[in-house]
Amino acid sequence: SLPIQTMETKSVTKSETVLRSLAIVGSEFCERMAYYAIVANLYLVLTKMLDLNPSESTSIILLWTGTCYLTPIFGGWMADAKIGRFYAILVFILVYICGLTGLAIIASTFDNFKGNTAKPAIFIGSLFIVALGTGGIKSNVSTFGADQFSDSSNPVSYKQTFFNWFYFAINLGALLSFTLIAYVQEQTLQVGLIIPAGLMGLSALLFLSGTRSYIRVPPQGSTIMKSFKIVYHAIVSPQPRTTMHSYSFLDRAKWATGSDGRFLFTTQEIEDVKDFSRIIPIQLMFIIYWMLYAQMSSVFYMQGLYLDLHVFNGFQIPVACLNLFDTAIILILVPIFERILYPFLKVCIFIYRLTFLEKTNR
Question: Rounded to an integer, what distance in angstroms lies between the CA atom of residue 169 and that of residue 9?
């Protein structure tokens, strides 16, 4: 087995940091291309290949999209509590490839699809295997990227630059999927569904190319499970006599002890859960946003089918191109922020101490 390089054992040069960053960004670029290649014309696939009606197709798309955003919980738990982020990403890449291969095999037999109940079941099953794969990667790849900048030899600006271009690569992948791959799918649906499997294979190779230089943080226990335990002990523990001025319900867990009489949780762990509880109302507001955003690949796509999308000399742009507006804006703004806006802000004395979190909020 390969040795685990940790922050204590790995001396990192700038060139090594760049190479492993490129491996992670390149892998994520291919993975996002594969994902959005499925999203781009999934409605077309379900209605044309599986012969489903619009209502059934929309329901499957929304259910699948929701699953893609729920499986990261499992992926994060597996990495934190069991095998670490590096091996979790590898496992879910293999799961991802299995799902995409299933889609490609079924798509290649499209001519024999109608009247066969097994093939649609296998296709939808493969689709949800893809949801497990993409969710497992989603919950770990960004934090694994952050791990590569955890040693003191890398300034904070390196990490900020990494995430700017990481996000740029995600949206570039979406751009190519919603244009080139979507066009291929509208011309030849079978070929268009084989492409994502190839992209995921390339993603695996790019990720493995940085294996020997990655900083790998060992699993340190699930934060989610620890948080649930703190809430549980806060509920069952009696209210102590205390003179604390800012006493919180969760502070009851501070006095929870194990069978050996030692405290189960540190003060910092409880404070972290308290901090998280304060942003829950803000996070709940995002539900409305994502309910609307999810319509872009379903209802919005269905509306696009009724539009006249012919442009120059009768060329018809793919319906999936209607998703490009937000992607294009991001691709334009990321380099502007990275090369122009943030350097300009650094020379302004009154906001010289602008933090990474403040950049995100503004």
Answer: 30
- Residue 349 structure tokens: 């004395």
Confidence of residue 7 (pLDDT cuts 50, 70, 90): very low
Specify the amino acid at residue 164.
N
Report the phi/psi class of residue 51: left, alpha or beta, with left for phi > 0 and alpha for psi in -120 to 50: left
> What are the residues whose beta carbons fall under 8 Å from the beta carbon of 257, sequence distance 6 or more?
263, 264
Nearest to 86 by CA among 261, 233, 211: 211
Q: Encode pLDDT of 102-146 as tens digits.
A: 998 888 776 655 666 777 888 899 999 999 999 999 999 999 998
| Tokens read off for 106 | 């079924």
Residue 30 in contact with residue 172, Cβ under 8 Å?
no
Taking the C-alpha atoms of residue 281 and residue 183, their distance in angstroms, rounded to an integer, is 41
Q: Please choose, from the candidates 218, 236, 313, the residue with its C-alpha nearest in 3D space to the C-alpha of residue 7.
A: 218
> How distant, in Å, are the alpha carbons of 95, 122, 274, 303 from that of 67?
15, 17, 28, 24
